[in-house]
Write a structure and sequence with these properties.
332 residues, alpha+beta, Fructose-1,6-Bisphosphatase, Chain A, domain 1, D-Maltodextrin-Binding Protein, domain 2, 2 domains, eight-stranded mixed sheet, 17 strands, 31% helix, globular, binds 6-O-phosphono-beta-D-fructofuranose, binds manganese (II) ion
Length: 332
């Protein structure tokens, strides 16, 4: 079988459909190359001296791991000189990083979670990188305000998973494509041309330890799943929780399911970040035929008010997400 590389996929989109500009192609390739580097660092594990804490905190008061910091640096360094970005923002940086004046300024804004699933770094469980691409509004400064666009304005989004293999899931608004890193060739090779999500599922992902804090619609949904064959759903459900969003969403892309990190009485605004976790994942999931809401609203319709704001997330199989969303509206 002929192998299609990421570069070839992007060049063909640029040539035939005109939906990927040379600048966007460069951006995606640079991010993919940075992910390759991060994957390499991650795979060294304890031998590479990359595990453990960095002794610092990010803007959200979370302890940074060495790999959080390394991944952030790799992505910033890779992206700042190419001329494709106006600015970039990251979970690990309080304010957007401006492109140094010695480099040309491009038209895109890049948002990223450099290393998602930090709690799994030191235990050899899959982690990853999430990214989202917006266009910088013309004639404006690329400051925080420029980033505050709803997810529906994304021009591309993707995530890498550093697991037994390294995969890259990508959308430029033309469906979802999956690539696997061929370590011998050093290239991302297409391994799924059109990722689609089935509408129904019998598998849910949620951190059950938060159960006592949940709001009633989530409690109702999970109770009904747990009741199994003899309950209102008439079927048994399985549960999975990797605790790395990238790995949980990748599993859902591969075999279906629903993923939830809802608001609760402890995480009153939600746990996950809207702009570089929920938005890119929602774009990908919708492009694969699934759905994503915060319980009430479509994630991609939310107008952000702050770069690091949090949001409740319910995403995956369309019929299930619609059911959970309906439960929220019924409880109002
Ligand atoms: O980035 C936040 C994150 O690490 C996600 O990747 C993951 O889904 C979630 O937090 C795990 O949360 P918890 O620690 O509550 O299981
Ligand atoms: Mn994360």
């Amino acid at each position: 079988m002929k192998k299609i590389t990421l570069t070839q996929y992007l060049i063909e989109l640029q040539r035939n459909k005109g939906c990927v500009s040379a600048e966007l192609r460069l951006l995606i390739e640079v991010v993919a190359r940075a992910c390759k580097r991060i994957s390499h660092e991650v795979s060294k594990g304890a031998l590479g001296g990359v595990l453990g804490g960095a002794g610092t905190e990010n803007i959200q008061g979370e302890a940074q791991k060495k790999l959080d910091v390394i991944a952030n640096e790799v992505l910033v360094e890779a992206n700042e000189w190419g001329g494709h970005l106006a600015a970039l923002a990251s979970e690990e940086m309080e304010h957007p990083h401006q492109i140094p004046s010695r480099y040309p300024r491009g038209e895109f804004l890049l948002l990223m979670d450099p290393l998602d699933g930090s709690s799994n770094i030191d235990v050899n469980v899959s982690i990853g990188t999430i990214f989202s691409v917006l266009r910088c509004p013309e004639g404006v400064e690329a400051n925080e305000q420029a980033f505050l666009q709803p997810g529906s304005a994304q021009v591309a989004a993707g995530f890498a998973v550093y697991g037994p293999s390294t995969v890259l899931v990508l959308t430029v608004g033309r469906g979802v494509v999956e690539f696997t890193l061929d370590r011998e060739l050093g290239s991302f090779i297409m391994t799924e041309a059109n990722v689609t999500l089935s509408a129904d599922t019998q598998e849910f992902a949620i951190n059950m330890s938060n159960m006592r804090n949940w709001e009633s619609p989530i409690k109702r949904y999970i109770d009904e799943c747990l009741a199994g064959k003899t309950g209102p759903r008439g079927k048994d459900f399985n549960m999975r929780w990797v605790a790395s969003m990238v790995a949980d969403v990748f599993r859902i892309m591969a075999r279906g399911g629903i993923f939830m990190y809802p608001k609760d009485s402890k995480h009153t605004a939600g746990r996950l970040r809207l702009m570089y976790e929920a938005n890119p994942m929602a774009f990908i999931v919708e492009q694969a035929g699934g759905a994503a809401t915060d319980g009430y609203r479509r994630i991609l319709d939310i107008q952000p008010v702050a770069l690091h704001e949090r949001v409740g997330v319910i995403l995956g199989a369309k019929a299930e997400v619609e059911r959970v969303t309906r439960y929220h509206h019924e409880a109002r």
